[in-house]
Amino acid sequence: MVGAEDQDSPVVELPAGTLRGRTEGGVAVFKGVPYAEPPVGDLRWRPARPHPGWSGTRDATAHGPSAPQMFMEGGDPVLGGHGFPPFDEDCLTLNVWTPSADTAGRPVLVWIHGGGFVSGSGSMPHYSGETFARNGDLVVVTINYRIGPLGYLAFGSDAEAEPANFWLTDQVAALRWVRENIAEFGGDPGNITVAGQSGGAVSTAALAGHPEARTLFRRAILQSPPFGLHIPTRAESAERTAVYQEILGAKGIEDMRAVPWPRLIEAGGELFGRTMRWGYWPTPFLPVIDEATLARHPVETLLEGAGSDIDVLIGWTREEANFGFGLDERYAAATRDQVVERAADTFGDRAAEAYTAYESTRPGARPVDVLMDLISDELFRVPSVELAERRAAQGRPVWVYQFDFPTPAHDGRLGAAHCLELPFTFNNFDQWSHAPFLEGIRPGVRDGLASAMHQAWISFIRTGDPNHPALPAWERYDGQSRTTMRFDSVTKATEDLAGDSRRLHSSARD
């Protein structure tokens, strides 16, 4: 079962082979562990397959390559980068942090990174499981999976039984690996929480509705899920695949399997340009509704069947959209007429009325502020709170939060932007030193908020309830109080925090 040659080089014996890890920060770490066969050659754009294993002792002290993705030298002005070389198609690996590879049966956290379905990696230092493992006595797993064109292009027709979501087959394979192997790392395979942010939160919900995966975990943490996205059918997605193939100059999937992956990523960048719309978050690659892996919109999977029994913690940041638009001068110059025209997509002939409603919530609001709130509501806040409403009406457990703490970076233009809660929930600011959006935050305020959030996440992972002594009482969301935990320099439970947005968008559908 478990062995240890010495304290600094823990060894674990698995059915697939032996692993030698390393002790870091007081916890045992096993990196770059393959959980599925490399999806290369003829296996490109095919469902994940079990890894055949290895002989001898495999070194597990270095992360595996990240999934192929676009990369900006010098980083970006918000995160400073979200996915770093090396990149390779042979990317289906995971990483494990554990206080000890023993028989303790600890709760398990499986983290799925976000990145707009085109970037990110479970191997990034941002997502190190060290703090959760050490502070919560948890076993933590982070995964790499196929993203961009290699993970999200769909082929064939709606009538076909083959999976369209190759990324999801990767994640199911990783969860299966966790269920079968995590006991050897000191984890409890019957007490698994899956958590993710943004695209990773969509993944978490999708897993809750997958025929196999929904039986493999009992809790879900959904950080900033963009549930307002339209999830296309395979037929709808085929139109975008055809555009991509045109860009690539390929006639079909066999031609595409012969194209080096850097050219596939380059063509994905061109698809960005062709699919962007003013006032909308760019998403050239999306999950796909199919019969084999994702039968309905991911948000619906948490309301019906086995997914409805999963404990859910869900929330968003107050200014989600500022992440993508707040530093863009083209949006800073937006006019009222432009924003009203954009709002008409949702509110029709009541768009001007909706503009006024948004404007009234922010004294001195500019058109760009109204647009940011509109996008944040449509994509994140309103569909998340509506999920909470529906689960509460069913008597299903759900806890809701809003992250309100603004960053002073970039003269405050980001506010409490998308992704800003991540270093607080992981409580590992030393791993985010390259991220510009954290500049200027005072450590005293920062550290108190991070401790409160981090401990709440640990409590939820361990017990299904986020309450802990250093946090104000956090009641489950229900249709009367609509309790929402407001995380800020002063954290407090607030009733119906998203009520204005919820009522405004509900009226648009009446």
What does this structure look like?
Residues 8-492 form the Carboxylesterase type B domain. With 510 residues, the chain is α/β, with parallel strands linked by helices. The protein contains 16 helices and 15 strands. The strands form two sheets. An eleven-stranded mixed sheet has the order 4-5-7-9-8-10-11-12-13-14-15, sandwiched between helices. A four-stranded mixed sheet has the order 1-2-3-6, with no helix packed on it. α1 (130-136) links the parallel β8 and β9 (139-143). The N and C termini lie far apart (60 Å).
Output the strand order for the largest sheet: 4-5-7-9-8-10-11-12-13-14-15
| Ends distance | 60 Å
Average pLDDT number: 95
Helix content: 25-40%
Summarize the biggest pleated sheet: 11 strands, mixed
Number of helices: 16
Give me the secondary-structure category: alpha/beta
The CATH class of the largest domain is: Alpha Beta
CATH topology of the largest domain: Rossmann fold
The second-level CATH architecture of the largest domain is 3-Layer(aba) Sandwich
User: Total number of β-strand segments?
Assistant: 15
Strand percentage: 15-25%
Q: Could you state the CATH homologous superfamily of the largest domain?
A: Alpha/Beta hydrolase fold, catalytic domain
